[in-house]
Every structure is written in structure tokens, then in C-alpha cells.
Specification:
The protein contains seven helices and six strands. It is of the alpha/beta class. Strands 3-2-1-4-5-6 form a six-stranded parallel β-sheet, sandwiched between helices. Helix 2 links the parallel strand 2 and strand 3. Helix 4 runs parallel beside helix 6. The termini are far apart.
């Protein structure tokens, strides 16, 4: 029986979370957010997509695209349902969310774009923002005390609260530069 009660089978869409970012470096907050969205929304899988050319952060990215891709792979190794995609690194041009979502869309596939509240606040600066609206449901990962909504109207939005994990890639780079420990801030294998 299909969902409407008829006798024909209706294929169930694969539900994929798409979590892009610079990941310079990836940290425990990224991994916790991916796992929380996977579980909370009952997704089939979450793809971490390191930006190949994060055009809004040019000149501030320390690790190469290949290094950031490998750190992401190591960080989620053995984590069921979370994978790493090299799509943007292979593309070799400026990373644009709508392009990535178009590359990932397929019949019977539902996409969920995973964003932190800080990324949602920055959406107004994105290239092809209006195209993004039709391609995915926005999933806003909100730490305690945060609340964010995409700009404009007509977005499909889910909110996933997570515990507050106060860590940032900038902080980790600063600690490394100062010769201080980053234990507990990055996954042990990254």
C-alpha cells in the first residue's frame, strides 16, 4: 500500500542533510551538529561538504582544500550516517550553495541544508540565494540562546537545538599558533 492507502507502492524519498563549510579546521561542534540533525530529523545520512574555494573567506583560510577534506574524513570516520563529500573540492571554482544542491538533487531525494545560526545570519550575502530556496529545506542548528530565520519568506525551515559547545575554528587556529592544547576541541582522529 502506498501512503495514500492505494495498492501501488510509492517510493520513499532519500532524506539527505547537506552540511557545508570551510572546516578550517573541523571541530567537535561541527560533528555534534551533524549527529544531532541526523537523529532529530531522521535523515538517511548527512554529507559534510568542505568548501573547495570559500570565496567569502579568501585570504583567511589556512588549510588547503585537500587538507580540510582529509580532516573532515578523519573526524567522521566510524560515525554512522555521516559522510564526507569532495564535490566542492573537485569542482575547483568558488563554492556556491545552490550549485552544490543542484549537483546533489535527484528524483526521490529530499535535501536538507544544515546551517548554524551564524551562517543563517549571513545568507543575505549568498550568490543565487533565491535558487537555494527551491532546492532544500533549511535546517537551523541553534545553540542555547540562539534563534535564526532565513531572510525573506517562503523557506521550508526546521530548527534543531543542540547543547552549547563554545568552540570555533578561529579559536582553534589561535590556540595552535600559541602552542596551546586543542584537546577536546577537535575530534581525536582529525
Amino acid at each position: 500500500m502506498n501512503r495514500s492507502g492505494g495498492s501501488s507502492l510509492t517510493p520513499v524519498a532519500e532524506r539527505i542533510g547537506v552540511y557545508g563549510g570551510t572546516f578550517d579546521p573541523i571541530h567537535v561542534g561541527h560533528v555534534a551538529a551533524a549527529g544531532a540533525v541526523l537523529r532529530t530529523l531522521g535523515l538517511d545520512r548527512v554529507l559534510l561538504v568542505p568548501a573547495g574555494d570559500p570565496w567569502q573567506k579568501r585570504g583567511r583560510v589556512v588549510a588547503t582544500p585537500e587538507q580540510r577534506l582529509e580532516m573532515a574524513r578523519l573526524a567522521v570516520e566510524g560515525l554512522d550516517g555521516v559522510e564526507v563529500s569532495d564535490l566542492e573540492v573537485r569542482r575547483g571554482v568558488a563554492s556556491v550553495t545552490a550549485d552544490t544542491l543542484e549537483d546533489l538533487r535527484a528524483p526521490e531525494r529530499e535535501l536538507f541544508l544544515i546551517l548554524g545560526a551564524d551562517a543563517v545570519a549571513n545568507m543575505g550575502t549568498w550568490r543565487r540565494l533565491d535558487d537555494t530556496r527551491a532546492l532544500a529545506t533549511i535546517v537551523v542548528v541553534e545553540r542555547e540562546g540562539e534563534r535564526a530565520e532565513p531572510p525573506g519568506a517562503d523557506w521550508r525551515v526546521e530548527h534543531v537545538p543542540i547543547p552549547r559547545i563554545d568552540v570555533s575554528s578561529t579559536e582553534i587556529r589561535d590556540l595552535i599558533a600559541a602552542g596551546e592544547s586543542i584537546d577536546g576541541l577537535v575530534p581525536p582522529t582529525a
